[in-house]
Write a structure and sequence with these properties.
Helix content: 40-55%
Largest sheet: 3 strands, antiparallel
Radius of gyration: 13 Å
Structural class: alpha+beta
InterPro entries: DUF8048 (IPR058361)
Strand order of the largest sheet: 1-2-3
Number of strands: 3
Oligomer: single chain
Number of helices: 5
Protein name: DUF8048 domain-containing protein
Strand content: 5-15%
Order of helices and strands: HHHEEHHE
Distance between the termini: 17 Å
Number of domains: 1
Length: 128
């Protein structure tokens, strides 16, 4: 399944820059980002995940648009995704870095309000 909306929340220059900085193949990084978005949509679903994170973490939703949630979650969420998707430490770090950089570039998010124990996560909402 090749859904062109999966990488939609990520700017090309962010993905390219993170790939270069982390010495990760850009195409491999894009595939991992798409796999992660697909996993969130399919199991258990974007709205269910966001609901769960809002219950578990203070101020989990940093900003939302009709297309995207900008979240702040604990590192354990990323560890679980890394294990589920079979990502090695380098690729997982690059995926997390893309999410972090994308949140920092989102002008509607006040990055100073992100808890020091939180890690950014961008969730693309499926189109109807």
């Amino acid at each position: 399944m090749n859904d062109p909306t999966l990488p939609a929340p990520f700017d090309d220059d962010v993905v390219r820059g993170v790939a270069g900085t982390n010495s990760v193949d850009e195409e491999r990084l894009r595939d991992a980002l798409a796999d992660h978005q697909r996993t969130m949509r399919e199991n258990p679903g974007v709205e269910d995940l966001v609901y769960e994170w809002r219950k578990r973490f203070d101020d989990a939703v940093l900003h939302r648009t009709p297309e995207t949630f900008f979240m702040a979650v604990r590192e354990t969420v990323w560890e679980e995704y890394g294990a589920h998707l079979g990502l090695d430490d380098y690729l997982l770090a690059a995926v997390v870095a893309v999410h972090q950089e994308q949140v920092l570039r989102e002008t509607a998010v006040d990055s100073s309000t992100i808890d020091e124990n939180a890690v950014a996560l961008v969730v693309s909402r499926p189109s109807s």
